[in-house]
Amino acid sequence: MMKKNTKNIKSLIRLFFICSLSYNKVHSQAINPHEFSINGYIRTGIGGTDGGQMVNFVTPENLHKFRLGNEANHYGELQFNYRYRNKDSVNLYEVTYMMAKYIPFGSDGYKQFPETAQLYGKINKVVKNANIWLGKRYYDRRNVELLDYFWINSAQNSQIGLGLENYQIKNAGNLNLALIRFKYGNNNSHSYAADLRYLDVPVSQFSKLNFLGQYSIETENKLMNTQKHNGYALGTWYTYSKKNITHTSTILFRKGSSITENGYTGKTIREYRDSKRIYDLDKASSLDIINNFVYDDKRRHAIQASLTYQYRNFGTGDLDQNEIMMTDKASKNWMSVGFRYMYYINKYFNLALEAGNDYMKSDRSGLEGSLQKVTFSPQITLNYGYYSRPVFRPFITYAHWSESFKGITGESLLNNRLIRKTQGVSIGLQLEMWW
């Protein structure tokens, strides 16, 4: 299994670095208006859990987890950028293409070519410094880094979008508007979202308010025999930034077709799974409350702490095998609290400790319990900074979970050693970098 992981790593690094090294120079001479550049991201490594293939420690019915020493996968992005500048070096036109690849440990996903994650064009400075864009893109994503949880991710996996961004309002922030279309399989089912944001409204010298309003429509799906649905999302977040501190507090409510599958896509949640109805999008809703704090003096200490709560109302009760309603309502609660602390020995070496607790309760599955995870990593870097990359991480992770999660948490086709356990240990190495 270790040989297979090594082959995955070599293939991923070869794909991204050969392209970068052969193409990564910027043509920015004063007489040349054309600028080309490359940027990207790589996360790769090797590891094992309890003597077998490394697994993710995550609560049931969830994708998001405390990340450090708990990512049993390789992931990479490679982005090519073209910009046309005028004589004053102002970027007037841009074209961006990005490929991405996700490979779980032990899989043969490296054999397939990376998917197109972004392909869009942009015209800048159209009116009041606003930009117009068209295409497929990641659009103003917001996340909790500890959990890799994108609590706003309106356009990822879209088919196409059109938007106006950074329309400036004098001394009062800026407006963004996007129209986004998604396609589901080959059955001509689609969803559409209109996403309006009012950003960076000044509250004080160091703090700002942001607002989100979204309206969405999911079309009829004749193959699944589902009806048309509408939905909306309303949210606000407060940001504070001063010297070594950044802090974000968020509240976000979603209704109907604005509820997404997870934090890695803007697609509407599916009503049916394995021919069984899970959601009623005429009634379903979701609420997120998030608090995220980072302190980094870039000399001795850095810490990120987060508190995340999510409530989901499925909009329908539980059904028995004959599709007869057994309960009037089903919902799920997820609460996550934790931190990552880094102690700088010097600019090249720091000690990282991450600890977190995830609690979940689902009326649908009848599961309730929690998972605790602790990771220690002596990190090797090139500079100070919580977000400084590249970083090389040897790590050891210990996790413990409730009896009710036994056989679910840590379950893997490549490692069955945790099926009857409520705890596990992972050991490994990880390289993470962006440029």
Describe the 3D structure.
With 435 residues, the chain is mostly beta strands. It is 5% helix and 55% strand. It has 1 helix and 23 strands. The strands form 3 sheets. The protein has an 18-stranded antiparallel barrel. It has a two-stranded antiparallel ribbon with strand order 7-8. The longest helix is centred in the N-terminal third of the chain and has 22 residues.
Task: Give a summary of the structure in a few sentences.
The chain is mainly β.
Describe the secondary structure blueprint for this structure.
Layout: H1 2-23, E1 34-49, E2 52-53, E3 73-85, E4 91-104, E5 115-127, E6 130-136, E7 142-144, E8 149-152, E9 160-168, E10 174-184, E11 189-202, E12 207-218, E13 229-242, E14 245-256, E15 272-273, E16 276-277, E17 285-296, E18 301-313, E19 331-346, E20 349-362, E21 368-381, E22 391-401, E23 423-434
Antiparallel strand pairs: 1-2, 1-3, 1-23, 3-4, 4-5, 5-6, 6-9, 7-8, 9-10, 10-11, 11-12, 12-13, 13-14, 14-17, 15-16, 17-18, 18-19, 19-20, 20-21, 21-22, 22-23
